[in-house]
Design a protein that fits this description.
The protein has helices at 59-75, 85-97, 104-117, 125-138, 148-164, 174-183, 188-207, 237-246, 252-261, 265-270, 302-308, 324-335, 343-356, 359-366, 370-377, 383-389, and strands at residues 14-18, 21-32, 35-45, 51-56, 276-277, 282-285, 296-299. With 398 residues, it is of the alpha+beta class. Helix 13 (343-356) runs antiparallel to helix 14. The radius of gyration is 36 Å and the shape is rod-shaped. The termini are far apart.
Length: 398
């Protein structure tokens, strides 16, 4: 048991430790002339790494001898005689690395100053997430507030992360993140999107002094976009017709823009009615709304015209819902149609290619490359099926 050098009720082995080294005192007994005497052995290590013992008749004399050697070591009068084997080697290696004019105390102080400079300010993960989302609502690197869809995604994904990690951000570990992702059954694109936001959060924390400089925990995680999100699914024309038939007017733009213009959900969420230029024959997806940060014009097909014209407004958000998933869930139950992930956009690309037989043109309309369409989005359909798809026209009001 380690103790200080106090001489009141010492425990044994008794260790005297100072910055310069340490010494150990053992208590024993010896017999002489029929009498039993206490003795105290002081254990130190020599420069040869061997253990040396010296016996004293009293505990006080052993302590006095030990402290004298420790003081002498601090003044440079002895070398490593009081250090154990590993500690002695550590001391000798340090002396080899340092110039003769630099003492160990100077080196230690320099190290402490470095640690102080890298000292981070603790913050619990829930507080960090709250501050990060507030910063995105105030403005992004482009000077504008993040889109409503992005803020919703932040609150959903990072909100769950904050609920699971009620600790300081510096204590978040790779095994803990992987265990959480596994328990939440996050895989594929969903896992990728969540990890990407956590990585952004960690880098933001580091820039604001909540994590020390250097690497961050997400550097050790595999954050690569999955090459394949599974089989591509599309809707049949009859399924789309049922969805549109039972959808409430506020949900029709989401369905029509996805099915007949190939807009992504996030793009529709950022779209303003002022960008829906029916009289000019196109929908403008601004760079700030597009996933690829590239402006594009999508032609208005007769089917899209028929569904949007009766409900079009001059301005305002096209999609008024913060939680589109809830609305879609209710819609599919009412229409008795199983929902398919990203199937509106997949369907548009597949049927559009079959209709006009021009992949590069469809790629421009969809905001993708021809290679991506061939590799990930295109589902082979016939021109007749494409005609049926784009023939899902809204019947005029009677």
């Amino acid at each position: 048991m380690e103790s200080t050098s106090s001489r009141d009720t010492p425990t044994f082995p008794h260790i005297i430790a100072k910055r310069n080294g340490r010494a150990t005192i053992y208590r024993g007994e010896r017999s002489k002339g029929g009498n039993t005497y206490l003795e105290f052995r002081l254990a130190t290590y020599g420069t040869d790494g061997r253990r040396h013992l010296k016996t004293f008749p009293t505990f006080e004399k052993a302590v006095e001898a030990a402290e004298k050697k420790l003081v002498a070591l601090g003044r440079g009068l002895v070398d490593t005689t009081l250090l154990s084997g590993p500690a002695r080697l550590d001391y000798l290696n340090a002396r080899k690395l340092l110039p003769a004019t630099v003492g160990l105390t100077d080196a230690a102080n320099a190290w402490l100053r470095t640690q102080e400079a890298h000292k981070s300010e603790p913050i619990p993960v829930p507080d960090l997430v709250t501050a990060f989302i507030a910063s995105r609502e105030a403005g992004t690197r482009r000077g504008k507030a993040a889109s409503a869809a992005y803020r919703i995604d932040l609150r959903r994904r990072l909100g769950k992360f904050a609920e699971a990690f009620l600790c300081d951000v510096a204590d978040v570990s790779v095994p803990a993140i992987e265990e959480w992702l596994g328990s939440a059954k996050q895989t594929g694109r969903n896992r990728f999107n969540t990890l990407r936001l956590i990585r952004t959060l960690m880098r933001w924390a580091q820039k604001r002094g909540h994590l020390p400089p250097g690497g961050i925990v997400t550097d050790k995680l595999e954050i690569n976009a999955p090459s394949d999100d599974g089989p591509i699914e599309i809707f049949m024309p009859a399924e789309l017709a049922r969805l549109l038939a039972v959808a409430k007017p506020s949900l029709v733009p989401y369905l029509a823009l996805g099915a007949f213009a190939g807009l992504r959900t996030a793009e529709t969420a950022r779209l303003d009615w002022a960008d829906v230029k029916l009289e000019r024959g196109f929908v403008e997806v601004r760079a700030s709304a597009a996933k690829t940060a590239s402006r594009r014009l999508v032609p208005v097909t007769p089917a899209l015209q028929s569904w949007l014209a009766p409900i079009r407004r001059e301005s305002g958000p096209v999609l008024p819902y913060a939680n589109i998933g809830h609305q879609v869930g209710q819609l599919t139950r009412d229409a008795k149609v199983a929902w398919k992930v990203n199937a509106l956009r997949h369907s548009f690309i597949s049927y559009r290619v079959a209709e006009i037989q021009d992949v590069p043109k469809v790629a421009l309309e969809a905001g993708n490359s021809p290679q991506m369409i061939f590799a990930h989005y295109r589902e082979l359909v016939t021109p007749k099926e494409a005609q049926a798809w784009f023939g899902v026209i809204r019947e005029p009001a009677q």
